[in-house]
Automatic annotation (TrEMBL):
<keyword id="KW-0067">ATP-binding</keyword>
<protein>
    <submittedName>
        <fullName>Sn-glycerol-3-phosphate ABC transporter ATP-binding protein UgpC</fullName>
    </submittedName>
</protein>
<dbReference type="InterPro" id="IPR017871">
    <property type="entry name" value="ABC_transporter-like_CS"/>
</dbReference>
<dbReference type="InterPro" id="IPR015855">
    <property type="entry name" value="ABC_transpr_MalK-like"/>
</dbReference>
<dbReference type="Pfam" id="PF00005">
    <property type="entry name" value="ABC_tran"/>
</dbReference>
<dbReference type="GO" id="GO:0005524">
    <property type="term" value="F:ATP binding"/>
</dbReference>
<keyword id="KW-0813">Transport</keyword>
<keyword id="KW-0547">Nucleotide-binding</keyword>
<dbReference type="InterPro" id="IPR027417">
    <property type="entry name" value="P-loop_NTPase"/>
</dbReference>
<dbReference type="InterPro" id="IPR012340">
    <property type="entry name" value="NA-bd_OB-fold"/>
</dbReference>
<dbReference type="InterPro" id="IPR047641">
    <property type="entry name" value="ABC_transpr_MalK/UgpC-like"/>
</dbReference>
<dbReference type="InterPro" id="IPR008995">
    <property type="entry name" value="Mo/tungstate-bd_C_term_dom"/>
</dbReference>
<feature type="domain" description="ABC transporter">
    <location>
        <begin position="9"/>
        <end position="239"/>
    </location>
</feature>
<comment type="similarity">
    <text>Belongs to the ABC transporter superfamily.</text>
</comment>
<dbReference type="InterPro" id="IPR003439">
    <property type="entry name" value="ABC_transporter-like_ATP-bd"/>
</dbReference>
<dbReference type="InterPro" id="IPR003593">
    <property type="entry name" value="AAA+_ATPase"/>
</dbReference>
Length: 370
């Protein structure tokens, strides 16, 4: 198995309407050969519908889907050379693991000896060797998902489609399986589209992420691009854990400078380039996005225009670091600190904001400024 074929997937202005519900709105996407693209968004954003349209399980209302330049709109699912892995595994309960794995090849009239060789090859890749004679009901959830993955692999398709394949597994298995899927895909270099509502899966697995909301693409980019430069406050808060804190602030201009007022007299001075962006947008109020790593403990440091004093409302221990909920004016924000650095109930600790790293969003429209 492996790539000797090119598989580039293109979506042009793809739409889906269910009666009055517009589930997918004008999606454009170019997936490169061998790329792993993750579609992510909250429930109802249209990600499953989009995947099902790529698979051919759902008609498209408008637009086109192309594989290597060939229009797939009228091509039946079985003729698309794609294999889908489902959340509920979709195994045949009356067949053994070996029969489940080999079923698609049997349908292609492949010789029994050849099927056996392929089944053994895939079983070895997925460490299913010892389970080949069991029925699905005698397998754990993780093992069933491995068989479902094996059924897709054995077909050696041009494209893998994954529909929330890890949702039914417990947290520890999920982490293990997401690494395995990624390792297999990196070895096979098969073009892959993966749907999840879990932003951590999107961040950890994707070459590129497509963030969807209410059927519309919000942003397409690498995990780092999306994490560092979210195009709006929705993407900013959806991607990243702990989530970005959003706080409304009043802007006060003074000469070249601009200060963000968070309430209770708490002001933070913006660097001049950020101040210039706000001035040109003539903005008096702003939504400020802060990631926990951009607020640090600054005990012992001097008072300056990027520091603030706060009691510690809550500390969550994460082992390697701690997340402290602290007060910034009228708002609660999260700070990432060293373990043991702060404690719930601490009074008057000093924190420092990395003002160059904060995100500025339009207060009503949510779009990124600067
Ligand atoms: P989830 O994570 O909950 O599965 P999703 O992002 O995959 O959500 P879709 O299942 O694609 O979202 O649904 C997108 C929108 O289309 C939703 O508003 C949904 O109610 C609607 N929808 C999906 N399938 C149908 C259908 N067969 N008939 C009518 N509306 C539908």
């Amino acid at each position: 198995m492996g790539r000797d074929r090119v598989a580039e997937l293109t979506l042009r202005a793809v739409e889906k309407r269910f009666g009055a519900v517009q589930a997918v709105k004008a999606v454009d996407l170019d997936v490169a050969d061998g790329e792993f693209v993750v579609l992510v968004g909250p429930s109802g954003c249209g990600k499953s519908t989009l995947l099902r349209m790529i698979a051919g399980l759902e008609d498209i209302s408008d637009g086109e889907i192309l594989l290597d330049g060939r229009n797939l709109n009228a091509v039946a699912p079985r003729d698309r050379d794609m294999a889908m892995v489902f959340q509920d595994y979709a195994l045949y309960p009356h067949m053994t693991v070996a029969e489940n794995l080999g079923f698609a090849l049997k349908m292609r009239d492949m010789a029994a000896s050849e099927i056996e060789a392929k089944v053994n090859e895939v079983a070895a890749m997925l460490e299913l060797d010892a389970l080949l004679h069991r029925k699905p009901r005698a397998l754990s959830g993780g093992q069933r998902q491995r068989v479902a993955l094996g059924r897709a692999l054995i077909r050696d398709p041009k494209v893998f489609l994954f529909d929330e394949p890890l949702s039914n597994l417990d947290a520890k298995l999920r982490v293990g399986m997401r690494m395995e899927i990624r390792k297999l895909q990196a070895a096979l270099r098969t073009t892959s589209i993966y749907v999840t509502h879990d932003q951590i899966e999107a961040m950890t697995m994707a070459d590129r992420i497509v963030v969807l909301k209410l059927g519309e693409v919000q942003q397409i980019g690498t995990p780092i691009e999306i994490y560092q430069r979210p195009v709006n406050s929705f993407v900013g808060t959806f991607i990243g854990s702990p989530p970005m804190s959003l706080s409304k602030a009043d802007v006060r201009y003074e000469g070249e400078a601009a200060f963000l007022g968070f309430g209770r007299g708490q002001e933070i001075r913006l660097p001049s380039d950020r101040a210039a962006v706000l001035r040109s947008a003539a903005i008096a109020q702003i939504e400020v996005g802060l990631r926990a790593e951009h607020i640090a403990l600054a005990d012992g440091g001097g008072e300056d225009e990027a520091t603030f004093l706060s009691d510690v409302i809550l500390v969550e221990e994460h082992g390697a670091d701690s997340i402290a909920v602290v007060r910034l004016g009228d708002h609660e924000v999260m700070a990432r600190v060293k373990p043991g650095g702060v404690h719930t109930g601490d009074k008057g600790r000093r924190f420092e904001m990395d003002v160059a790293a904060l995100h500025l969003f339009h207060p009503e429209k949510g779009g990124r400024l600067g």
